[in-house]
Amino acid sequence: MKKQLLIVDGYNMIGSWPELVQLKNQNKLEDAREVLLQRLSNYAKYEGLEVIVVFDAQLVPGIQQTYKKYHLTVVFTKEEETADSYIERIAGEKNDRLTQVTVATSDLAEQWLVFSKGALRASANELYKNVQKSERTIAIHATDIHFQDFRRNSPWNLEQLSKLSEKMDELSKKKE
């Protein structure tokens, strides 16, 4: 099975996801980046993906860097390099027989270009919905795990629960 690599155009997501747009409009771009990274980290861990999040250094000049945060690779491009050109280059390099690259962006020109290099594409909205779905599933699993402890620590054993269930059925039939 191929390794799954998701390359995300960070500012494209910030400009599309409702809660991130709200933070951006409040001049809280750093907070929007942080929320994006946290949500993508949970998504990546749950789905078993490697994720690279790319930001244009044009919006934060002079800080070209690559670092790990929340098990994600975060890239701020060089001052003269756009996130689009970086993503296009990396998608071409990383997409091979062992790795399936998916690029998350709503930029149609970029989608076509990475698609021509064999990478898959996802719009900002598609990724947003996928992240939300994973978050809901994680919440359900967390609730199940939480209540598993209650079932394990129940003072009733299986035989008693079975008898109780039979008695409830018997009583409900009498009411009818």
UniProtKB/TrEMBL annotation:
A Pfam family matched in the record: NYN_YacP
Cited InterPro entries: YacP-like (IPR010298)
Name the UniProt record assigns to this protein: NYN domain-containing protein
